[in-house]
Amino acid sequence: xxxxxxxxxxxxxxxxxxxxxxxxxxxxxxxxxxxxxxxxxxxxxxxxxxxxxxxxxxxxxxxxxxxxxxxxxxxxxxxxxxxxxxxxxxxxxxxxxxxxxxxxxxxxxx
Length: 110
Prior knowledge:
This protein has six helices and two strands, in the order H-H-H-E-H-H-E-H. By secondary structure, it is mainly α. It has one domain (3-109): Orthogonal Bundle (Recoverin, domain 1). It has a two-stranded antiparallel ribbon with strand order 1-2. Helix 1 runs antiparallel to helix 2 (27-34) and helix 3 packs across helix 6. The longest helix is centred in the middle third of the chain and has 11 residues, at 41-51. It is globular and about 35 Å long. Residues 39-74, 78-110 form the EF-hand domain. Belongs to the parvalbumin family. This is Parvalbumin.
Protein backbone atom coordinates (compact mmCIF):
# COMPACT_ATOMS: atom_id res chain seq x y z
CA UNK A 1 0.00 0.00 0.00
CA UNK A 2 1.23 3.46 -0.91
CA UNK A 3 0.25 6.68 0.80
CA UNK A 4 -1.01 7.86 -2.61
CA UNK A 5 -3.69 5.14 -2.38
CA UNK A 6 -5.30 7.34 0.30
CA UNK A 7 -4.01 10.87 -0.39
CA UNK A 8 -3.60 12.86 -3.62
CA UNK A 9 -0.01 13.20 -4.82
CA UNK A 10 -0.56 16.92 -5.48
CA UNK A 11 -1.73 17.48 -1.87
CA UNK A 12 1.29 15.55 -0.56
CA UNK A 13 3.62 17.69 -2.68
CA UNK A 14 2.00 20.91 -1.44
CA UNK A 15 2.23 19.79 2.20
CA UNK A 16 5.89 18.71 1.89
CA UNK A 17 6.85 21.98 0.16
CA UNK A 18 5.10 24.01 2.87
CA UNK A 19 7.45 22.64 5.54
CA UNK A 20 10.77 22.46 3.68
CA UNK A 21 12.43 24.93 6.04
CA UNK A 22 13.78 23.55 9.31
CA UNK A 23 11.45 24.00 12.28
CA UNK A 24 8.50 24.90 10.01
CA UNK A 25 6.59 21.61 10.44
CA UNK A 26 3.23 21.62 12.22
CA UNK A 27 1.34 18.30 12.40
CA UNK A 28 -2.10 19.94 12.31
CA UNK A 29 -1.21 22.14 9.34
CA UNK A 30 0.36 19.18 7.54
CA UNK A 31 -2.68 16.92 8.10
CA UNK A 32 -5.05 19.64 6.87
CA UNK A 33 -2.91 20.48 3.80
CA UNK A 34 -2.39 16.85 2.81
CA UNK A 35 -6.14 16.22 3.14
CA UNK A 36 -5.89 13.56 5.85
CA UNK A 37 -8.24 15.41 8.19
CA UNK A 38 -11.04 14.99 5.60
CA UNK A 39 -10.60 11.22 5.31
CA UNK A 40 -12.64 8.46 6.91
CA UNK A 41 -11.40 6.60 10.03
CA UNK A 42 -10.43 3.49 7.97
CA UNK A 43 -8.39 5.68 5.59
CA UNK A 44 -6.70 7.49 8.50
CA UNK A 45 -5.91 4.09 10.03
CA UNK A 46 -4.24 2.96 6.78
CA UNK A 47 -1.93 5.98 6.97
CA UNK A 48 -1.25 5.30 10.68
CA UNK A 49 -0.22 1.73 9.84
CA UNK A 50 2.17 3.00 7.15
CA UNK A 51 3.76 5.39 9.65
CA UNK A 52 4.10 2.61 12.25
CA UNK A 53 7.20 1.20 10.55
CA UNK A 54 7.93 -1.49 13.15
CA UNK A 55 4.25 -2.56 13.40
CA UNK A 56 4.25 -2.07 17.18
CA UNK A 57 0.83 -0.39 17.15
CA UNK A 58 2.47 2.92 18.05
CA UNK A 59 4.40 5.68 16.28
CA UNK A 60 7.54 6.17 18.34
CA UNK A 61 9.98 9.08 18.35
CA UNK A 62 12.34 7.58 15.75
CA UNK A 63 9.38 6.98 13.40
CA UNK A 64 8.16 10.55 13.97
CA UNK A 65 11.56 11.95 13.02
CA UNK A 66 11.24 10.28 9.60
CA UNK A 67 7.52 11.19 9.31
CA UNK A 68 7.79 13.31 6.14
CA UNK A 69 9.80 10.64 4.33
CA UNK A 70 6.78 8.32 4.52
CA UNK A 71 4.97 10.80 2.29
CA UNK A 72 7.84 11.71 -0.04
CA UNK A 73 11.16 9.85 -0.36
CA UNK A 74 13.26 12.99 -0.74
CA UNK A 75 11.68 14.85 2.18
CA UNK A 76 13.78 16.01 5.09
CA UNK A 77 13.84 14.46 8.55
CA UNK A 78 12.09 16.44 11.27
CA UNK A 79 14.36 18.38 13.61
CA UNK A 80 14.65 17.32 17.25
CA UNK A 81 12.42 20.26 18.26
CA UNK A 82 9.78 19.37 15.64
CA UNK A 83 9.83 15.72 16.65
CA UNK A 84 9.41 16.62 20.33
CA UNK A 85 6.57 19.07 19.57
CA UNK A 86 4.83 16.46 17.37
CA UNK A 87 5.12 13.88 20.15
CA UNK A 88 3.79 16.31 22.75
CA UNK A 89 0.84 17.23 20.50
CA UNK A 90 -0.12 13.61 19.86
CA UNK A 91 0.89 11.71 23.01
CA UNK A 92 -2.20 12.26 25.15
CA UNK A 93 -1.42 9.61 27.79
CA UNK A 94 2.24 10.55 28.24
CA UNK A 95 3.71 7.13 27.39
CA UNK A 96 6.23 8.58 24.92
CA UNK A 97 4.56 7.29 21.77
CA UNK A 98 1.43 7.91 19.70
CA UNK A 99 -1.18 5.16 19.49
CA UNK A 100 -4.00 4.83 16.95
CA UNK A 101 -6.58 6.68 19.08
CA UNK A 102 -4.13 9.51 19.77
CA UNK A 103 -3.19 9.77 16.09
CA UNK A 104 -6.83 9.83 15.05
CA UNK A 105 -7.61 12.57 17.61
CA UNK A 106 -4.66 14.68 16.36
CA UNK A 107 -5.70 14.29 12.71
CA UNK A 108 -9.34 15.09 13.45
CA UNK A 109 -8.32 18.22 15.42
CA UNK A 110 -6.61 19.56 12.29
